[in-house]
Amino acid sequence: MRSPLRYLAADDVVVAMPSVADRLDLAERTMTALVIDAELPPKIGVHPRPVGSFAHAMPASMRPVAASGADDDLLGIKWVTGFPDNRALGLPAIHAIVVLSDPATGEPRAILDGGPITAERTAAVSGVAIARFGPRAAATMGADDHPARATIIGAGVQGRSHLAILGYTLPGVALTIVDRHPERAEALAEIARATDGIGSAAATSGDDAASATKDADVVITAATFADPAHRQVMDRSWLGHDALVVPVDYATIVAASVARDAALFLVDDRGQFLANRDAGQFDDYPDPTATIGEAILAGTTRPPSGRVVVTHLGVGLADVLFADAIVRRAEELGLGTMLPR
Question: Quick check: 83 and 73 in contact, CB under 8 A?
Fold first, then answer.
């Protein structure tokens, strides 16, 4: 008899979510697997009628090779939709589900609400970038050095998911949060002040992105702008000479000139980035120096001087690796609803 199918609602996913340290390990495993273990196409997308909306299918397969140290094949897909106008309706802008299949038989194994996975795996990839390519002042500070300074642009779901990662990778970080809506920025700053590694006096809010980023060691852009006039507005004048810039927003606010002049320009997946550039999301951007995974495997370190730009658009393999870890934990805890086949 076939076993029932496990469904994990958002609350179940949150309870079974790996720790921050484990999320960073999963994110790094994803980045290196993209180089040596994985098969996945650039996102397959359609565009529903509301302006700025999208729906993406993100299949991924992982077949570990002996040198990678992983044991299990994985197979799955994420279906994700983005409808920016949902905020006016009181609904989330992003909806997603992840389906895991048995890699040996193809039989569906589990269905998970993909919202929390999308948020946490994205922030974890940013954390890998910060840990490996962030400012030296954050890693080894002398008596005259300042605490690491970070700015998040965008106080939505992605902004919030990056708080724990920043507190973990840059303990003692001084954080500024900027949003078009000052009340949203301050609400997220209040959450940041209660986040481990940030502290009650180290998070502030603002509404002027250019001034908030000028002295930041790490800049994370998580803005959602449907209006093309807001694309690529962050030029070099906004940024410090040695800043790490981590854009996680499609049709990003980070100007192409920032990537062109960077000492190091990395992306999560080259094929996906180039497909999006061809589609007009990254006009005038250069070819990447390498992928994050290639840089990790090559032992690439942060250049001694100059900005580093790490753009990551999200890959289905990250969702599948996170979902597998979450399902394993959910099985241990007895979480979820068992659906008959």
Answer: no
Own/partner contacts of 178-187, CB < 8 Å, gap of 24 or more, are 178/151, 178/152, 178/153, 178/154, 178/205, 178/206, 178/207, 178/208, 178/209, 178/212, 179/153, 179/154, 179/155, 179/205, 179/207, 180/207, 181/155, 182/206, 182/207, 184/155, 184/156, 185/155, 187/155
The Cα–Cα gap between 248 and 311 comes to 6
In one-letter notation, the amino acid at residue 179 is: D
Write the pLDDT tens digit of every residue in 205-247.
988 999 999 999 999 999 876 567 789 999 999 999 999 999 9
Under 8 Å between Cβ of 93 and 87: yes
Torsion sign, CA atoms 210, 216, 221, 222 = negative
Positions in the chain whose pLDDT score sits under 50: 67, 137-144
Q: How far is residue 294's CA from residue 317's CA, in Å, rounded to a whole number? A: 16
Element (H, E) at 99: strand 94-101
Q: For residues 231 and 124, what is the distance between their CA atoms, to the nearest angstrom?
A: 25
62 DSSP β-pair partners? 38, 74
Q: Residue 224 and residue 222: Cα distance in Å, rounded?
A: 7
Give the span between the Cα atoms of 303 and 301, in whole angstroms.
6
pTM of the predicted model over 0.90: yes
Judge contact between 8 and 327, C-beta under 8 A. Answer: yes
Among candidate residues 239, 166, 158, 157, the one with its CA nearest the CA of residue 197:
166
What per-residue confidence (pLDDT) applies to 66? 54
User: What's the CA gap between 43 and 58, in Å, rounded?
Assistant: 5
